[in-house]
Amino acid sequence: EGFKINKSKTRFLKAHNRQCITGIVVNNEELGVPKKWVKILRAAIHNGKKEKAKGQLPQETIRKISGMAAWLKSVNAERYKDIISEAYELIKS
Q1: Around Cβ 83, how many Cβ atoms within 10 Å?
Q2: Are the C-beta atoms of residues 72 and 23 closer than 8 Å to each other?
Q3: Does any domain span residue 2?
């Protein structure tokens, strides 16, 4: 009712291109996130482990990793279970 398609925001994407909508890749049967985003989370976990080994894991880092892992879990928990469990393991210990 009263809605119109905004043609400037409409795009047609072919099957072989990455189809990303609001940061979620929707090409396949299952949802995913861009590889670059996963690499950023892996780097944050790695840096968090290094900081924790020094004995100083800031609350900001814990919140960042926790939020990223929670969002990744909401997108596709089964596909990213390894990195999610690694993140929660770092946070809880």
Answers
A1: 17
A2: no
A3: no
d(CA 88, CA 84): 6
Task: For the chain, 93 residues long, give each residue's pLDDT as a single digit of tens.
Answer: 789 999 998 888 888 888 888 889 988 788 999 999 999 999 999 999 999 999 989 999 999 999 999 999 999 999 999 999 999 999 997
In a domain, 1, yes or no: no
Query: What single letter denotes the amino acid at residue 36?
Result: K
C-beta separation of 31 from 25 below 8 A: yes
Q: Kindly give the pairing relationship between strand 20-21 and strand 24-25.
A: antiparallel
Rounded to two decimals, what is the model's pTM?
0.81
Helices (H), 1-93: 35-54, 59-76, 81-92
In a domain? residue 28:
yes
User: Contact, 61 vs 44, CB < 8 A?
Assistant: yes
* Residue 66, domain member (yes or no): yes
Q: Residue 63: which domain range?
A: 7-92
